[in-house]
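Whiteboard transcription, Tuesday session. T.W. wrote the structure tokens on the left side:
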């Protein structure tokens, strides 16, 4: 499988949790907190595989968020020491290069032991839970308005839509210093309308 490249909805709740405390987090503490919020579910009937898949989803989201926050902020991704730094440490570039192989592993969905359909259903389930988490409007936004929110027009490519989603969601996330909860919610509603188009083909497999 080439890999399901849909957005991991854990990215935004993780940003909230990491911004809520100056201290570092441990992976299993993050997992427990997400489970409490109804955003982390059982992923496999076998305990060992369930643990691996939970860890994979968390690490995938953390490395995605790390890339999104750079170069303004540094997200340290260590299993027992996960923390956002407002000031980029002097050794951040070295750490980013050093962790390259591990980051690539967790960003490659083909390393997640599940069929394409299971991954799709899992992410759909997470999105449904996430809607409740942020209070997204149940009615889909009109496509034209959604594109306007994204500052795009009808000629926008799937790649441009997805890139703009991440840019605007990160910009307006309420836990950012200059964030705005209402703008963030509007961007999420626009993404709900546009995401099927932007992720079209993301779950295709190669022989």
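and on the right, the sequence the group agreed on:
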């Amino acid at each position: 499988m080439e890999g399901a490249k849909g957005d991991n909805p854990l990215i935004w709740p993780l940003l909230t949790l990491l911004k809520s405390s100056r201290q570092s987090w441990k992976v299993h503490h993050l997992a427990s907190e997400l489970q409490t919020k109804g955003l982390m579910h059982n992923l496999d009937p076998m305990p060992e595989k369930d643990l691996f898949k939970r860890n994979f989803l968390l690490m995938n989201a953390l490395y995605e968020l790390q890339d999104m926050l750079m170069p303004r902020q540094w997200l340290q991704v260590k299993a027992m020491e996960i923390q956002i730094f407002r000031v980029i440490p002097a050794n951040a570039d070295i750490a980013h290069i050093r962790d390259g192989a591990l980051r690539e592993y967790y960003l490659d969905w083909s390393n997640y032991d599940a069929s394409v359909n299971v991954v799709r259903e899992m992410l759909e389930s997470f999105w449904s839970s996430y809607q409740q988490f942020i209070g997204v409007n149940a009615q889909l936004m009109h496509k034209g308005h959604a594109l306007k929110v994204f500052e795009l027009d009808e000629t926008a490519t799937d790649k441009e839509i997805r890139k703009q989603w991440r840019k605007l969601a990160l910009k307006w996330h309420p836990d950012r210093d200059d964030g705005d909860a209402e703008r963030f919610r509007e961007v999420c509603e626009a993404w709900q309308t546009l995401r099927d188009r932007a992720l079209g083909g993301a779950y295709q497999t190669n022989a």
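Someone added at the bottom: The chain is about 55% helix and 5% strand.
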